[in-house]
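Appendix B. One record, verbatim.
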Amino acid sequence: MKDDHLHIISFDIPFPPSYGGVIDVFFQIFHLSKAGIKVHLHAFDYGKGKRSKELEQICYSVNYYPRRTGLLSALSNKPYITGSRKSEALVLELLKDDYPILFEGLHTCYHISDKRLANRLKIFRETNIEHRYYGYLVLAEINPFYKFYFAIAAIKLRFYQRVIRYADLVLCVSEADTIYYKKKFHKTPVVFMPCFHKNEEVLLEKGAGSYILFHGNLEVSENVKATIYLMEKVMNDIDYRFIIAGNNPTSRIKKIALRHPNVEIISNPNEEQMEMLIRKAHLHLLVTFQATGLKLKLLNALFRGKLVVANSKMTHGTGLAPLCFIADTPDELKSYIHQLTDYDYNFAEIGRRRELLLNRFNNKENAHEMINLIFGKD
């Protein structure tokens, strides 16, 4: 019985799996390899020349390529996230065999239309509707230079997404995105393939916690906007400890937090600290102004946390709204916070959470479904 090999092109080196996109890539690789697929990983780095022994142990082979950052890539007619990941060395590696090729995000699609790869099975793994994501960044950003940069990027990405038509299969990260891509590329098979993640079991601690938690990358415009909104519009007159945890909080976040005695900023928590914060929080307050992709922070909070209050954009297209308390205005968010102060789950609710999460976001089952779609196996 011959082995099944798969090329995976990643926009970054997916170890450690420390943020949304690479979390999906890493656990995708991990579970495909565990299921017997020989993964040939091709990863772009950011000029640091780092290598990963962990990836080299999991994958059949690993190749690294420098990302072409700088002015020339920025001035290209192609989106910067894509044009900076051009590599002839990558194409030459792909041409050494005839294995299927999986492109992780629009970032890695520079060579998807290359005529030398015309007869290959090509899979596009969607991570976001990128031009919409950058459009939301325009609205969230206050710096005029970055606003302009994000606006130009959104226009480029909207036109560039046409290269997805060269894919033989599209795997989408959310149901809402699946609907969009089915309409946009109706001649190509488009399938919902949930995000891969680190959770294997629902670990819900009983009892009340002592704080409310918001977590995320605190230098990303989207999260900065959400954090300030929660501090100034929601937690501003609630006498309850509010922890904001994440990487590199901006000076603006820190300055506003000083005006609110109930707010505590935890900068750059390690993995163990973050796990503890998620488990012990009484309530997760998760708000976004971008209904794009899947928010892994939502998934982690539901697998490992207690109560989750989220706005409808956070759960849009995920199928996870039944497991959350949905609130879309400051008054609605405040109302749930007051109602849930002494709330504790019953066994029926825990069972419902476990059933929905493990049916939809089961890494092992989703890896087998992915193998079946690519290699035609049952």
